[in-house]
Amino acid sequence: xxxxxxxxxxxxxxxxxxxxxxxxxxxxxxxxxxxxxxxxxxxxxxxxxxxxxxxxxxxxxxxxxxxxxxxxxxxxxxxxxxxxxxxxxxxxxxxxxxxxxxxxxxxxxxxxxxxxxxxxxxxxxxxxxxxxxxxxxxxxxxxxxxxxxxxxxxxxxxxxxxxxxxxxxxxxxxxxxxxxxxxxxxxxxxxxxxxxxxxxxxxxxxxxxxxxxxxxxxxxxxxxxxxxxxxxxxxxxxxxxxxxxxxxxxxxxxxxxxxxxxxxxxxxxxx
Amino acid sequence: xxxxxxxxxxxxxxxxxxxxxxxxxxxxxxxxxxxxxxxxxxxxxxxxxxxxxxxxxxxxxxxxxxxxxxxxxxxxxxxxxxxxxxxxxxxxxxxxxxxxxxxxxxxxxxxxxxxxxxxxxxxxxxxxxxxxxxxxxxxxxxxxxxxxxxxxxxxxxxxxxxxxxxxxxxxxxxxxxxxxxxxxxxxxxxxxxxxxxxxxxxxxxxxxxxxxxxxxxxxxxxxxxxxxxxxxxxxxxxxxxxxxxxxxxxxxxxxxxxxxxxxxxxxxxxx
Amino acid sequence: xxxxxxxxxxxxxxxxxxxxxxxxxxxxxxxxxxxxxxxxxxxxxxxxxxxxxxxxxxxxxxxxxxxxxxxxxxxxxxxxxxxxxxxxxxxxxxxxxxxxxxxxxxxxxxxxxxxxxxxxxxxxxxxxxxxxxxxxxxxxxxxxxxxxxxxxxxxxxxxxxxxxxxxxxxxxxxxxxxxxxxxxxxxxxxxxxxxxxxxxxxxxxxxxxxxxxxxxxxxxxxxxxxxxxxxxxxxxxxxxxxxxxxxxxxxxxxxxxxxxxxxxxxxxxxxxxxxxxxxxxxxxxxxxxxxxxxxxxxxxxxxxxxxxxxxxxxxxxxxxxxxxxx
Amino acid sequence: xxxxxxxxxxxxxxxxxxxxxxxxxxxxxxxxxxxxxxxxxxxxxxxxxxxxxxxxxxxxxxxxxxxxxxxxxxxxxxxxxxxxxxxxxxxxxxxxxxxxxxxxxxxxxxxxxxxxxxxxxxxxxxxxxxxxxxxxxxxxxxxxxxxxxxxxxxxxxxxxxxxxxxxxxxxxxxxxxxxxxxxxxxxxxxxxxxxxxxxxxxxxxxxxxxxxxxxxxxxxxxxxxxxxxxxxxxxxxxxxxxxxxxxxxxxxxxxxxxxxxxxxxxxxxxxxxxxxxxxxxxxxxxxxxxxxxxxxxxxxxxxxxxxxxxxxxxxxxxxxxxxxxxxxxxxxxxxxxxxxxxxxxxxxxxxxxxxxxxxxxxxxxxxxxxxxxxxxxxxxxxxxxxxxxxxxxxxxxxxxxxxxxxxxxxxxxxxxxxxxxxxxxxxxxxxxxxxxxxxxxxxxxxxxxxxxxxxxxxxxxxxxxxxxxxxxxxxxxxxxxxxxxxxxxxxxxx
Amino acid sequence: xxxxxxxxxxxxxxxxxxxxxxxxxxxxxxxxxxxxxxxxxxxxxxxxxxxxxxxxxxxxxxxxxxxxxxxxxxxxxxxxxxxxxxxxxxxxxxxxxxxxxxxxxxxxxxxxxxxxxxxxxxxxxxxxxxxxxxxxxxxxxxxxxxxxxxxxxxxxxxxxxxxxxxxxxxxxxxxxxxxxxxxxxxxxxxxxxxxxxxxxxxxxxxxxxxxxxxxxxxxxxxxxxxxxxxxxxxxxxxxxxxxxxxxxxxxxxxxxxxxxxxxxxxxxxxxxxxxxxxxxxxxxxxxxxxxxxxxxxxxxxxxxxxxxxxxxxxxxxxxxxxxxxxxxxxxxxxxxxxxxxxxxxxxxxxxxxxxxxxxxxxxxxxxxxxxxxxxxxxxxxxxxxxxxxxxxxxxxxxxxxxxxxxxxxxxxxxxxxxxxxxxxxxxxxxxxxxxxxxxxxx
Lengths: 271, 271, 326, 494, 442
Ligand SMILES: Nc1ncnc2c1ncn2[C@@H]1O[C@H](COP(=O)(O)OP(=O)(O)OP(=O)(O)O)[C@@H](O)[C@H]1O
Ligand SMILES: Nc1ncnc2c1ncn2[C@@H]1O[C@H](COP(=O)(O)OP(=O)(O)OP(=O)(O)O)[C@@H](O)[C@H]1O
Ligand SMILES: [Mg+2]
Ligand SMILES: [Mg+2]
Description:
The complex is a heteropentamer, with two copies of chain A, one copy of chain C, one copy of chain D and one copy of chain E. Chain D is an all-alpha fold.
């Protein structure tokens, strides 16, 4: 899916790839859907134990970039990635890298809630079960409870864990998906507009959760809400038309961006 | 699907039903999903040429109430509506009412974008076509263009109208759905979190569109964003646990609500 | 509906008679181009007679082919449906032969051997016991030293009846089993049926399909013995080796003369009421019964039908002309 | 006027009605189409429906009723002597009259006159025109034929007028009813819905037809053989009625046949389900679209091969192969080269039937699996599940109700299959557990008993109907149970 | 999680020394993944292997059926034999009933140099030629009576036994009296083959001739036309009816006991053995409605009823798979239920519907048993002009040929199977093309 390694960049890369403060490194990342190019040479690094927000107008490629970080785009026919992406210094598109392990380490929450047509309990237990994270039923119960609590859903569903996950309302469903992702204890969590279907209280709880998780996890979040980006993230990256416009400390981006386009976008002048 | 008319309320109703300032009237509306009750005796009227926002925590029944307004819940097995809902004074659950005509007059935009697996053009043209709103190809083209423009999508898709609507990004898809609903020129437009998948600029454009449409249409919008509710609506209704907590001028609700629960909700104290 | 006029003869019935009826129908259509070639259905004597006895009229068939004489109960059923006048026409005899794969040694069978090999119960040391024999040579040392495998017609076939009557019943008597059975059961009917009971442990295999299936089974199991119609054997003489029964080799001559014991008559039945009304029906029957067809030199005999003796054929024609009904 | 021409005319009226209705609606709308209740096309369709339906109804009534009426009229004109004969004979005479009447159409007026005058000349004359008669017609027949000819012509004329009138009247009435608030769409859709309901009722009618066509004969059978002997009998041995023997009772035990049916079906499913499901999964989840576009139709060819071909394949190739293999195996294990698998066996039949059933499982499951939404797969893959885990734990459970439906359909085919079993498992009705030995099924016996040389009034033949109806009710019960199971799954997952 | 500080120097083996790498059973899981995939491939390979075995066994047995041995010789249409008394001007029947086989036999005898007086030899000469020569020559003469008295080259069908011998299907090593061709005939055959008079020609008769008891003249004409009629009837009736019924049941019918009953009922109809449909057809269409026996119309109707459940079940599954959000979208725009179904749901369900239809039609095309009871398993010589005339079907012809005693029918049986399979493949290809069109994923 990806065409790698031009010898020229190799050296420069080696240096950067090993920079420990970066959990993930994206180097000249371009993505094509068939003939259509969706990302243009994006260079974006993700710092460890940091929340990085991706913002930008609709269709600018935020989701696309996010999906390259755990190779979810492998599943799209005709999608091709060039450039280099590394997790802890290892190129994740390297043939020796195992995509399953990668995805266990880099979890994902999607834009549209997609609970499995199983019980709520089974939805959350699914990840730990396939990875063998719980050895006893009690351990599993604990993981499920903790994950649901972290996603702020426990109180609402604790009495109906055996009911189907698809019977929940949209917001509940999305929180269930967050719980499901958290249950695997990944190192990085990718969130594609996780709150777009949540009400403010649930959103606040998720934001709180993000704060909490940040201590141990690295989080990349796509969001439309600049308020949310400002609230939850330390770093913000602004995309436009498939290009990374700028990436910087969140405070800086929202107070004094370098790029005019970012300024305009934040002021609501284009989209 | 609904059990109507207790003679007692009849009279009181008659008076209210004919009150012209109300485009739609909801009288003691209760909704059951099988045995589960999702709405409790909601009394909520929608004023003509006004934007009414429905807010409330996730799962409180906002979507449910919205769907009763154009009888979309008819399509859910086991869903039952009691009470009375009127459009321009006519009970819309009356057997003599043609549900198709009703839905052409009361259009809907859903929470999850659901474009038809057809071309972008066909997506928008479908409604006008079945309702015979355009007689020539040129007229149809004009409707499609105008609707897409109103939804702020025209510039992005004008060169690929024949491409599939499902190939768009999530935000684009949702705007396509709005364009599609607008194309039929309904009298009332119901929007179920129409902006939950949109970026701020697109959201701003939709909000602008809502402002624009308000002159001729009546709009009911479900939203999680209290900012949005404050920006776009003149009236706001607050739901909680299937009950209508209060309904009032938006300014009043956001500055000085009557009900403590509304106050708490707005302050982010519960959810 | 009754309004549509029919101008084509319709025939149904036995699949044993079918090849002969086909030859006749084809020649009939060729030599008398005025009439359409009759339609000959296959479906068994039972199915044919059932359709035949549905009633009289253009929407019912005209002729039923049968590999056995019509039964009284069937005549009754026919009468009840309004088919009161049935003319019977015997067309000749069907020889039934035993054959094995052409690669085997010559085989001489006796009813007694067949009985002992295939019966459900045989007499051993004067006692009636369940058939213990597994090999042909157990039955008669002159027979091959191979596992018994016989492909006999299934109970739905008319041939089975002949097999039971002409082979098993005789073998039963010859082997002394009959006496043993008589000593055991009093009821005569039960005696008879016990005498013709075939073993059910898989060594005697019922074949409900046609002879091609039997042939395929013998192909698959070279030491098996199958029951065939004479005509079928003659057409596959290069693949099969026929057995003599009681020392007589089957052939049209030995069967016609009655020397070879196992054969049966074949028939067809005509609705007299249709004769003057369905175009060509009378001509067809006359054509069929002419010596050009069922004579010893005719195409049917060439195919394997054992022609009836001259006098009998004459009798058949006369009887039809006279309009004799059953 | 011929019926096809008439239909063409009616269709023309329908089309005109459509155009007219359409135009009128547009005219009434006066340019504002939205003032109409429905699209103009619906008004047009409504007019067309009104033109077509009554006319076709009239035509149908005529097609059914007129031959009956004309027939009885003509027959009442037969001479007394003929009328005294039984109905069946009269039918035959009437058949001849019909043939003559058909011939009359080909004759010139002079020739007609000749025939009327001299009935005896009719046969030769008609035969020269290619209408064969079996005998010289009686004079009354020629007369009746003339009448018949006349009556048919008249009746045709009448029906032409009636049908056209009905079409026109319908069209006009509907045309005039066109008004902006007329709920044309609802009415047209009402007619469509009636059509849909009619189509579904065919399934019910078929069932009624099946039961009815077997019931009388089955009852007849049970009047001869006690029901308990049939249902609980463990021996199937309907003895051949020996020549001359009047009593021909046998043992009609259903159990061995049922056991064989289930056993062979079970073996077949054992082959078809894993192979078919895995093939479907591979094609839906792993295969490239190129591979899929080649492999899927190829596999589907297996479903189209007539079962008789499978039967011969089993008989000539698979059976002997299994037998020889077993002989070799036995030889290796024990030193005795005796085959323990018989050439005709439950295994052979089940195996070959299983191959036939593969595409039934795979094609249907493939479509069902493909239909599982992508978001579910993404959700699972995003959690770090492998593809196979995703399939096993998410996709298959979600697709389960559909797959169970597909499997049931396949099982039904297995139970209903005949030819393969006849050739591959034989016809021996035995009760045993060894899959290497022959057994037989209910369907085989149905065919055999129906197509044999047995007496058709005997229980030996009639048992086919009892077997048929029993099988029908057994599968009905199975299906009811299956529906219940599918429902249960569905409730759990939705 | 990974708090290990890594210097550039240790970067090379960093991945391997990272301590907290969780064990998520990767080896085991990948092994199971590979196994799973392999099972899938094996399953497909298994199916294709048997398809190949089946087809190769059929084709290897049947390809010879497409060649037919003919003997091309000069035939003298002697007035002596055909119309001895010169009556043909007054009585056209003479030409119809003349003894044409003698004409042919004499012609062949002349070529072979056999003395016409030697009766035994002449019999054997006659045995070289198909009996259908009567019709062949008659048609020639009736079409052009002026050939009488002339000598014309005619390609005469060889007798089935000669045909088999020429194709090497008769073991000539067997004792002469145990085979159908004599040594003398074989000699003549070789002699004729050497001069080129006797040769294999493409067997057009296989496709045009009706049934015959003579293998060399037997063809699939009636069966092909009959099958074609039946398939058309089945397609025209069962597809719309099946789809309509499914739409009603899936989209409109209230979910209650009655529709449950219909559902169970339809599943059950799919399980009913096909011969039972024959009983139904006999009772309803032949005995009650009065349609003629042996007619393709009745066969088509019976097969329609038999195919309907298959199509309905597949169609319902396909309809069910269409996501509800599409329905909601259309309904929300004010489309009626009917419009929603016909504009959106049905097109999306089309691939599934077509799959079901292919399976159903293929099933119907290969079915014999129900046709048995309505009189279509029959000897029919005349090609049916309408669906109301007596006809047979391809599988019926296969079934009947398979039961023929003559050796020459063996290859024809396989040949007919090949034709049936080609018929089937054509149908499949058509449906696949259609399905492609609909399957276009947006
Ligand atoms: N599967 C696909 N096939 C083809 N094009 C795609 C596909 N997915 C996305 N695209 C295109 O790639 C571009 C970037 O899409 P992406 O989904 O990454 O945008 P986004 O920034 O996430 O937008 P949104 O905020 O609306 O979700 C868009 O123009 C979109 O049309
Ligand atoms: N089809 C259904 N069947 C059964 N219960 C349902 C169904 N749809 C919704 N509910 C239940 O009804 C309640 C109200 O749901 P509704 O979708 O109206 O909430 P909402 O206010 O729109 O929530 P959100 O903001 O999350 O969309 C919830 O408890 C939900 O679980
Ligand atoms: Mg996105
Ligand atoms: Mg909602």
